[in-house]
């Protein structure tokens, strides 16, 4: 199963400067593990010590925020696109 993962610029140092990576996995958690296998070190940047996504990241599956789906248990299918987007704040 191929999942396209869009990588933000600050994390591209772990992906050999690639903005797009193909991974596998039937859930976000499984996709993160697959991403770590091909890009060692990236998981600790996007997940905390308990394996939960860091608060300053937003993750979307086909433009749907996973916070409004099943979080890290959100199901993935072949051809899905996952976007990892750093949160932006300002004032």
Automatic annotation (TrEMBL):
The superkingdom of the source organism is Bacteria
Instruction: Please name the InterPro entries in this protein's record.
Output: Beta-grasp_dom_sf, MoaD_arc-typ, Mopterin_synth/thiamin_S_b, SAMP1_3, Sulfur_Carrier/Prot_Modifier, ThiS/MoaD-like
Q: What is this protein called?
A: Ubiquitin-like small modifier protein 1
- Species, as recorded: Limnothrix redekei LRLZ20PSL1
